[in-house]
Amino acid sequence: MADDANSSTDTIIEKPSEEKPTEVKPAEVKRAWADEVDDPDEEEQPTSSTSAEKDPELNIGSLKIDENKNTEKFLDEPEEGNIKAVTGDTLYSTAVTFEDLNLSEEILKGLYVDMKFTRPSKIQSVSLPMILTPPYKDLIAQAHNGSGKTTCFVLGMLSRVDVKLRAPQALCICPTRELAIQNIEVLNKMGKYTGITSFCAIPVDRARDIPINKRSPITDQIVVGTPGTIKKWMSVKKLSVDDMKILVFDEADHMLAEDGFKDDSLRIMKDIEKSTPHCQVLLFSATFNETVKNFVSRVVKDGNQMFVRKEELSLDVVKQYKVNCPDEYAKIHVIKDKIFELGEKLGQSIIFVHTRRSADVLHKALSDYGWQCTSIHGAIEKDHRDKIVKEFKDGLTQVLISTDLLARGFDQSQVNVVVNYDLPVKYEYQSEPDYEVYLHRCGRAGRFGRKGAVFNLLCTQKEHMLMGKIENHFQNNIVEISDWQNNNEFESALKAAGLI
DNA sequence: AAAAAAG
Q: Does A260 contact strand B, using a CB cutoff of 7 Å?
């Protein structure tokens, strides 16, 4: 990463007349998310003269907002540490309010009334002007888990499509069915008053599937789905890309990784390029390792880029612990006696496991002890997967066992405990931890700056070694719980995490 | 020695 790349905003280019350009200010101050409202720095950052002319109440460049505005959401919001904006020759204004973005009345209504949003988060205020301002440059955006990336690309898609044109104009590609469903739900809620319609292109159980040749072409403006199904719809010409204006990759590092969906993603990108000269490409993720960062920077050459340093990516508000477990039995008992008994009344928990089989085994073991929980992985019937997720999101279940199916993107604000029953490892080198997946798993807790705790259950020498590498990688100290049977240790852990 | 998607 070019560390000096954050100062390239000196050239002003022609902007639409009603826009008042101000400098993109890469946040350089390190701070914990939850400190945001108490942080005196917030109010003392220099104000740019252009924004002062525009509205004396509005202090663009800092995060101060009109005091008449409801700042409730503001209090909850995570603060982005160290974003670097490489803006090339285009100057963008950061948005302090959603009104600053020239969003339509209909979209604003969806944001305020249905989403109950009051003000853009940091990533939103920086990236949305880049997305919505001509010449609609491509964008690679990295921001913390739970900081509101989905809103960025959903608003981008909603704003850029023409509701009068009954043809697909925006496409969002996700790594799992669950994420596609979640994104389309956000989209539909935010776009409720726009008249824009959407289509979810994901695999369904065969019993419910309508043969594709019997289906009519998609006329919805926005399509959200998984790579295989999108490719299938495109190949039979039921998904036209002729009018495509904006292409989004959610969890983009995984979508463009060698061992992820690279081939599918590039195929789709090229097919769109062939039939539409100017389709804006947006890549969003909380993680971009060096390899994939280099690759995506080549794929999306002339776009805007914002990255976060890896040491600042680990969420401070989500406290991480390592639990010494002498054997597998101890791991199960930690979950049974500590996570269930202490954690249950605190909210919801997700337990991550390495394989489908261990998900089944753990689920059965806990059920045999009489504990209610559910489990999800890719070998489960799709209708049932949807049901498990819905029950969990509706708060009907408290503990969900999952493979890495839900490691990325899954957004359930009530989750404040994550358990790594085993640590994620790289496929090629199983002695190397998968740092990105680790971070994504942790990110299931502490959504939008909320408190959370992660318990890593360690048994073998290898697991301790993996843990050490993770601590070293993110340069953070993970507190040890030495006695897995000690209630006091768990209680003080939960207390330190702010959960009790 | 994997997960997911999809075939």
A: yes
